Amino acid sequence: MTTANERITQELRQRARQLLESGQVAAFVGYTSGSMPMVMQPFVARTPEETDRLEWNSFCVLNLANYLPALLKSLEPPRRPGDPPPEGPLPKVGVVATGCWSRNMVVQIQENQVQRERLVIIGISSRGMVDRKKVLGLVGHADVTSVKEDDNSLLVKGPGLEQEINRWDVIRDNCACCVHPDPVIFDHMIGDLKGERKLGERFKQVEEIENMSVQARWEWFTSEIDSCIRCYACRNACPLCYCPTCFVDDSRPQWVGKSIEPVDTAIFHIIRAYHCAGRCTDCGSCESACPMGIRMRILTKKLQKDVLELYGTEAGMSLDTPLPLSTYKLDDPQDFVLTESLKGEKK
Amino acid sequence: MSDIAKKQAEWQPKIIAFLCNWCSYAGADLAGVSRYQYPPSLRIVRVPCSGRVSANMILDALRSGADGVLVSGCHPGDCHYISGNYYARRRFAVLKRFLEFVGIEPDRVNFSWISASEGEQFAEVATEVTERVKKLGPARHLVKEF
Amino acid sequence: MLDKAGFEDWLRELAGQFEIFGPKANDRGIVNWQKLNEGELPDERPGVPKGSIKTFFFPQPETLLEFSARPGTEDAFIPHEPGTEHKPRLVVGVRPCDARSVVLNAMPYEDDPYFHKNRQNVVLIGLACRQGCSTCFCTWTGGSPVGTEGLDILAYPVSRGYVLEPVTERGASLVESAGPGNDATGAELKELEEIRSKAPSSLPETMELAPRLREKGLMDLYNAPFWQQLSDSCINCGTCTFLCPTCYCFDIQDETLRGKGRRIRYWDSCMFPLFTLHASGHNPRGEKVKRVRNRFMHKLKYFPERFGPLSCVGCGRCVRDCPVNIDIRQVINELLAT
Amino acid sequence: MSTPKGSVLVVGGGIAGVQAALDLADSGFYVHLVEKSAAIGGSMSQLDKTFPTNDCSACILSPKLVECGRHLNINLLTLSEVLSIDGEPGSFKVKVRQNPRYVDVDKCIACGNCAEKCPKKVPNEFDLGLGTRKAIYLRYPQAVPLKYAIDPEHCIYLKKPGRCGFCEKECPAGAINFKDTPREHDIEVGSVILALGFKPFDPSRLDFTGYGQFKNVVTSMEFERLLSPSGPCLGHMERPSDHQEPRKIAWLQCVGSRDINKACHGYCSSVCCMYAIKQAVIAREHSESGDVDATIFFMDMRTHGKGFEAYYDRAREEGINFHRARVHTVLPAGNDNLKLRFTGEDGKLREDEFELVVLSVGLETDPQVMRLAHQLGIHLDSDSFAETTCFQPVETSRKGIFVCGALAEPKDIPQSVMEASAAALEAERILYPARWTETRKKEFPPERDVHAEPPRIGVFVCSCGINIASVVDVQAVTDYAWTLPGVVLAQNNLFTCSQDTINQMADIIKKENLNRVVVASCTPRTHEPLFQETLREAGINKFLFEMANIRDQDSWVHQNDPEAATIKAMDLVRMAVAKVRGDDPLPYNSVTVTKSALVIGAGVAGMTAALSLADQGFPVTLVERKDRLGGHGRKFFRTWQGQEIQPYLEELVDMVESNEKIDVCLGSTIQEVSGSVGQFKTRLSNGKEIEHGVAIVAVGAESYKPREGRWNFLYGKNPAVHTLLELDQKFIKGEIDAKNLNQAVFIHCVGSRVPERPYCSRVCCTHAIDQAIHLKETNPEMDIFMLYRDIRTYGKREHLYQKARALGIIFIRYDLDNIPRVTEENGRLRIEVKDPIIDADVTLHPDLLVLASAVRPRDDVGELSKLFKCAMSSDGFLLEAHMKLRPVDFATDGVYLAGLCHYPKPVEETIAQAKAAASRAGLVLSRDAVPAESITAVVNLQKCTGCSVCTKVCAYHAVNMDPNTGKAAVDTGLCKGCGACVAGCRSDAITLKNLGNEQIMAAVEAAMDDIQAGQGL
């Protein structure tokens, strides 16, 4: 009897093979497994044969949308600056997409980073992915050499270690609070759409912090990021961080220092998160990529919550909803404006 | 008055005020023309429009050591550039909540609408913001030091 | 030989003249270098701490010089030596691989005064490995789980405490200062021997990697086909380089602020596109594949050709924490196969 | 008529003359400006502050004067007078005598050494004799031209050659020329504008005022000088007798106005009430003791202008006393004080003692001017003001010669400025074929390329007289500026905006090879253009300039904290220096002008404006929401001068309809407006798309109908109750049978000057009284009662008031505490009102009740102002760019306003304003191109990701995606430089020239570097 992920893996390989064989796509982006347990390797299959290496399991945590712009570009005929754009249809790329990844692709399309017509999206309604760090935490950060999973549990092994773990205890935070597991755009589905998840405490993590005193919040924030080594894994794992020159590299003016002094780290994380305001689809790649276990996702989640409260929109839910910070309504909330609140007080 | 209290009272914060050229900067001028007095804490930076002000600029002001920031533009609907202040309003609404979330005191960063004819209101806001920042004391959280 | 209590007392003593650091788990269970408070001993879990000890030799940032940027003052914009002198540091629980990295880094940094100053200021007390982990491969790179290169003292963890082996004079005098301690029992000496003999066998078989790679034709390795696929999955973050003990690349920047200015040196990564971006806008390593290749070629080919050994100590950090599971051991095998 | 001359003669260098000259010179005509004194500026330059904004008079006037003095197409003839004018419209021959200055204006550098050495002290007429000057003198510190002159009346050398002559020895420039002689100029012009202004009434002929007998009785003009920082006591208010600060001051209104017996001036001088209130307010501000008891004795409080009533209200709140009484005797009291005797409202005799008495003297025409008018064949009216009519408010009795300002009737500054533009328009109407035929073009020297140069910054710190220097230690700021990086020169000036400093600045820039300039003075919003032009003249790109606002935003708002203000000034200078260091030279862009106009509203104002432009050959689209032309004017019977309005209106309508340059769009409104000055695009409700270079908004107002509330007075319930306009309708249609009316009552201020509508409607008093007279004249038997609060028949309209009283019309005053009570007894009206004079209730039974109801702004004016991005005042009327000096411009370039949408006004003022608007519009339409935004967005293609946020937030569609590069591209023609795109861009890939993050944050970071204690202090 096979597991859900094994069944998905099988169908995925078939679909990918078809797409490559039929020449519908020039490359297919998926996952394969590497040398380490619990760390999957994003993988570009360029030949039908390579599709056999595709795999799907609970550790496919990095957002594959991240690879699309560069991959698409690499498939275009070379152009010198000033050359007109190439004629005719350009080679396509196949890609796997869960709910958050597909929403991310919507934003990429809205921001002209990828073109919908060049994507063949294989949708998978996500069951939620496993947080490797949580697993390691449960086994006291022991040396794990193999992990075998079935639908609801993980069997973790290492020198002098064999432990069965309930999959649902180690699900990633973003998956745990995800309400849109289904892809919003896709060309083929593997498995059925699950529909919206009803979730009471969608923003629990954020609310807990909101309820702290301002001083406590500052302490939480600084301690959360104090181990940051400024390796930018969070930034580079994020499909929405595609600036050729990141603000951290601007020197005139220098928005943020490059050292790991607390102020520099704080400002880096504030601006990085703010730049995702109204765009982040909570795919959790940033957190998964972070070697230090910083939960910077909570920052973007807060922004997601506020944008939803203030403007009633969520990033990537549809191609025709404008991004919240590049549009406005005449009656947008403005109680935060001093002159307005003072008016209020006078009344 | 205790010495600390005195120091607090004497201490003059430095507040960066980004004022839009058409309304708030003119309002600040009118405050002067009408001789409305307010604390000498503001350092006014003239920008074309409140829509010109970005989150980065506000953070950089704090990073550079500002004890507070004020961004002021035309009242909604009065923007000399039609809609600049509407976009600004969204940027700032999100930013302000976010900064509070990471523990920046709400009164550090302030926004206001002041028209060219509101000299008195400008003086009021300048005084109010100064008082609030004074209560908080010198900024520390995002101030770059070395 | 010092038992735990004795070792604690010793550290308490040394706390007078040193800031004491060691591997320590944070609230998330992640072990990293932190100040050890009174009575705290280094975390002995197998494997290396999250970050490497280069943080003690290449501080992030290193202030190279300072100047006044306040107009009107007579010394405006005239640089001078940074004032910040800190206490000498004592790092305990250093794994031999990390210690060895200091020796390797010293080769390119031979003439760097800042590096040398830091070296004089930092005493390293090693902790021998009872066994390696799945990601360890020091034995490939010329290191050993009980190696002493770069250390002042090597401590063997035995059931009652530590057996101290002085390596340098500075180490010796410190061991002196520990006083007679208690004599190692026969059983403990046996333990020590066991560590010396067994530990290496828990690791991949030793191989003379450096000479073998030196022999390979540079262009053959450079043009090897596997680089493309390898780099496909790389996201160009700096995790590997920033965690790596032998990645020592830096960038320099001037910061001015409220009338003060300083020139700082901070970590840079060859994985970042800007690393090689020229002022002209030209970038010799514009594409990801070139950057990925360069990192490995530097460690496994260019460095050995220049200095002899690999610029890798086999600590396995990059393998352990690469978000996309790029494994330098596989790269090595590919290169050997070429 | 053969092609006319392309030049105009303007006589009189006051604000009116200067405005007329600038309008003409900027729209293609060469102007000869004749001024009899040694400098232009007129009476306005003598004022301290101006109502109702309390602007510093010199500060707002100075830029205009300097502009005038520097203008390439204005020939300034000071110390000159017109001898004769021959010829007719299109070509006049003018004889002008220019009296000797004895100082070579090309050589004088205004250093003042001459005056310092001159031994001869003479009373300074600029200070009305309160202070002294030398025989060689400057008219005033900011005089234009800033050149000394020798007064032949008093110069020792000129009287006895060989004696004295110190000035000649002292002058470093060798500018003194005792041999200077009068010169006669023969000038040919196409038209003439008389702006000869007024002379303050001389109260010495009114013995009861004690003026001339008691030192501490001064005229209002003298008091202005006492208040003025540049006056005899440098702004420290002192009374003449003992130079002590007066703590109790009285103002006596209507001295030389509304006085047929002694002063022989029947008219009202219009401005005295407001300037008295202003002086009272300023006096309290100026006083060091801080407690000045100010009392104004008046008959009717005439605050009938825009923002005036609110000013009056605020003055009362601030505790200024207002006494409705006419003082009949001023007597001496102890220690130089004065005792005033007057009858209170209760009729009882009262006495009060004051330390200073200010006579609010009226305005009259200077006898010299009367003589000149006579020579030129210009008719003056019985009050010796130039004769004009309501329909031709700026035309004199002689064709081709126009009048503006106080010469035609006493009036305030904005009214004068308005008429000046109107007069200019009339001249242009005659001379338009000769546009640009006699003008010269400004040639700037080629600009030095400073790209490669390291910054060489010059810092000029202004004292602004004492406006800045009295609070900020300007010397310390100057010394500090020297220490800033890149600064190679710093200096302090008394008035950086004065002509000589400006010229000196240009020389210094060249001499010191400056490539950046910072001026620390007032606000860039008024003075930046002036200094920027100076840079250009010195061959430097004008964008290499910054201002530090150390007055409006420092010295004026931190008056009690000089040290903090000084430190702040240093910070502001440091910020400006940091900013300017990063500034780059920018190109001077321009927009080609669509040479046609859009006029919105086809009432008297709209039609007049349309015709004024069409007559000069500019196509006009005239949009009217109703389906017929005429607007509000249709409702009026006659002007206060008695001319019937309907025939005039018909004539106007015919002219508009028959003018092929005018395209009339009836029954349509404005839907959408895009573009900006020179290139507007407007869509009408009828779908029509119009391209136009300028727009004039003249949408009028409506009259308030008191359907309910305390101002209802049974209006709409009892047939005998009408509004003024309804009665006018009856007059027009002849529906009213005055013969059978026994009693008529008028109630004034219905819905005006009340909390919900705090402004005065300006027109109703005159209108009501004129109607009353009309009724009384048709039926002398009729009893007519006027229930009023203040009678505001300003200017010559006062004669109507006198006539009404003479005819036996009865005036009963009421105030808000006892509003007349109107009731009905079986259909018959019953009115009770308290008469304050007899202190008893009066009951009336009129068979006609007329309500002088307010003029209220139209509700839809708001949307329209939004479409054109124009501001509105709190009253709901449209708000001009500057209350005093830009009365018909909006802050938005290329959009102008006229008529009732600006403020209630009678037809003659509406016509004048409409013509003024047309004149201002002409400034744009007369050129092929107007300057466009230089500070525009630029994209850094290396950084741009093509995410298109910038294109989405740009309100002007100026940023678009370039399909070739897939990145953003800016259309600089459309870009307005707002920077919304810059703030929207996460990648720092789009920036504003000279307003990029780099430049702005340089200033911010500079602000944070605190000055070490004591440094520079």
Give the helix/strand layout.
The complex is a heterotetramer of chains A (347), B (146), C (338) and D (1017).
Chain A: H1 4-21, E1 27-33, E2 40-45, H2 68-75, E3 93-97, H3 99-110, E4 119-124, H4 132-138, E5 146-149, E6 153-158, E7 161-166, H5 173-176, E8 188-190, H6 204-210, H7 214-225, H8 233-237, H9 262-274, H10 285-289, H11 297-311, H12 338-346
Parallel strand pairs in A: 1-3, 3-4, 4-8
Antiparallel strand pairs in A: 1-2, 5-6, 6-7
Chain B: H1 3-10, E1 15-20, H2 24-33, E2 42-47, H3 55-63, E3 68-73, H4 84-101, E4 109-113, H5 119-136
Parallel strand pairs in B: 1-2, 1-3, 3-4
Helix pairs in contact in B: 2-5
Chain D: E1 7-11, H1 15-26, E2 30-34, E3 49-50, E4 55-56, H2 57-70, E5 74-77, E6 80-88, E7 91-98, H3 113-117, E8 121-123, E9 132-134, E10 136-137, E11 149-150, H4 156-159, H5 166-170, E12 183-189, E13 191-194, E14 199-200, E15 217-219, H6 220-227, E16 248-255, H7 272-286, E17 293-298, H8 308-317, E18 321-324, E19 327-332, E20 338-343, E21 349-354, E22 356-361, E23 363-364, H9 367-376, E24 401-403, H10 413-431, E25 457-462, H11 474-482, E26 487-493, H12 499-512, E27 516-521, H13 524-537, E28 545-549, H14 551-555, H15 562-581, E29 590-592, E30 597-600, H16 604-614, E31 620-623, H17 645-658, E32 662-665, E33 670-676, E34 679-684, E35 689-692, E36 694-697, E37 701-703, E38 721-723, H18 724-733, E39 743-750, H19 764-778, E40 783-788, H20 798-806, E41 810-813, E42 821-825, E43 828-835, E44 840-844, E45 848-853, E46 855-857, H21 861-867, E47 895-897, H22 907-925, E48 929-931, E49 937-939, H23 949-953, E50 959-962, E51 967-970, H24 980-984, E52 990-992, H25 997-1007
Parallel strand pairs in D: 1-2, 1-13, 2-5, 13-24, 15-22, 16-17, 16-22, 17-18, 25-26, 25-27, 27-28, 30-31, 30-36, 31-32, 36-47, 38-45, 39-40, 39-45, 40-41
Antiparallel strand pairs in D: 3-4, 6-7, 7-12, 8-9, 10-11, 14-23, 19-20, 20-21, 29-48, 33-34, 34-35, 37-46, 42-43, 43-44, 49-52, 50-51
